[in-house]
Amino acid sequence: MGHLEKMTSKKIMRMLHPSYLSLRLFFRSWGQFLWAELYNLLVLFTAVYLLQRYFMFHKLRLWLYWLSVLVVRKFMAGGFCRSDVRLNGCTVVITGADSGIGKEVAKELALRGAHLVLGSRDLVKAEQTKKELENLKGSVEIRHLDLSSLESVRTFANGLINHKYHIHMLLNIAGEMMCPYKETADGLEEQMAVNHLGHFLLTNMLLPWLTHHKPARIINVAATAHIDGRIPFSDFNYKQQGYSKWKAYCNSKLATVLFTRQLARNLKDTNVEAFCANPGVSQSALYRHVLPEFVYKHIIGFLVQTPREAAQTITYCATEAKQDVNFYYSECSSGWPSDEAMDDDLAQRLWRESEKLVGLEK
Ligand SMILES: NC(=O)c1ccc[n+]([C@@H]2O[C@H](COP(=O)([O-])OP(=O)(O)OC[C@H]3O[C@@H](n4cnc5c(N)ncnc54)[C@H](OP(=O)(O)O)[C@@H]3O)[C@@H](O)[C@H]2O)c1
Where do the TM regions start and end (predicted)? Predict the structure, then answer.
């Protein structure tokens, strides 16, 4: 009888487990959302309340307005990474961790126990980031890295190689968007140099130090803007076609996706996996060349994702994503890059061209 009871309770537990799990995940996802949105929701609810009370729209009940604010914010927030994976003992190299999305990713990984090596162009800012991460009990180290200089990328990579680091992950998050035309000291256009070529060189230099340690991952950060991109093979410096800030950004992000696709193919059957994460539109200083500071710091946060929300897909790629499903992720699930970004011939051609531009050609 005792045996029978045990069998039955086991069976019941097994039957209930999936629904218990999905209920738990459901509440965790809403918990994460409400926590991330606390400030936005408070401000928006108050604004709606004041508008309704003093100015207009008396016809509908207040809670209906609040409900629509909640639904819109939940839609904007996108997916949340629900993974429990710990990263104790993992060394993660991150670029762009001193602000916006990169800083939030660094916080997520610090909380999971990873040792973080931040590649920062501004060491004063990096010290502040280090303090913030250490307050979360993170283990952090900062090193100078200016991705617009191939020399700086080489020095940074060699520093890690000489230190004989066992690198488990490389997160290429740093980026520039729509800056005025500028050529780097290496004679490269700034957005292509920072967003693609600097990371291309860094990845290739660190690759041999990643392969021995499973599970190793390289995560590059894309943007939906890649859809509007073309690789300017014959005119990387926009001398003939003329410079468009937007086009140059899109082109650099298409290069990021093609680079990751080829990287994932090159790394097939090794211990290293390559992912491209699209964080979605988020409030951040990325818009510094496009919008006034007050707008990108205080206003657009109500309309788009917070950096913490945008960090979720990158965290998902660092912890959960599976290479055999896809290399491109968006909203914490498998996503769809443009047709051009899936063109293998183009990816190979870009790889060869990038090798020439950064001086890796054999
Ligand atoms: N925000 C969005 O809506 C959005 C949408 C799609 C994709 N993304 C991508 O997400 C990534 C992070 O962007 P974000 O929104 O978090 O922007 P952000 O707040 O401006 O962060 C960019 C980071 O990159 C660093 N960086 C820029 N140029 C560098 C260089 N030459 N050398 C080293 N580091 C450099 C910046 O350093 P400093 O702190 O010193 O300035 C900063 O830490 C970017 O790749 C961006 O293209 C963003």
Answer: 33-51
Q: Is 93 in the pocket of ligand 1 (CB under 6 A)?
A: no
User: Is the minimum distance from the CB of 282 to ligand 1 under 6 angstroms?
Assistant: yes
- Which of the residues 165, 249, 287, 329 is marked catalytic? 249
Between residues 172 and 22, the one the model is more confident about: 172
**Domains with residue ranges and CATH for the chain:** 26-77 (no CATH), 91-358 (3.40.50.720)
* Residue 181 among the catalytic residues: no
Q: In one letter, which amino acid is 259?
A: F
Q: Is the CB of 121 under 6 A from ligand 1?
A: yes
Number of alpha carbons in the 13 Å side-chain half-sphere of residue 109? 33
Residue minimizing CA distance to atom 24 of ligand 1:
174
Q: Give the whole-angstrom CA distance, residue 362 versus residue 359.
A: 9
Q: What region does 129 belong to: left with phi over 0, alpha with psi -120 to 50, or beta? A: alpha
Roughly how many angstroms between the first and final C-alpha of the chain, as a whole number?
75
- The pLDDT tens digits for 62-88 are 888 888 888 888 888 888 898 889 999
Question: 106 falls in which pLDDT band (50, 70, 90)?
Answer: very high
Spatial separation of the C-alpha atoms in residues 287 and 302, rounded to whole Å: 15
Give residue 293 CA to ligand 1 midpoint distance, Å. 15
Q: Residues 300, 291: contact at Cβ < 8 Å?
A: yes
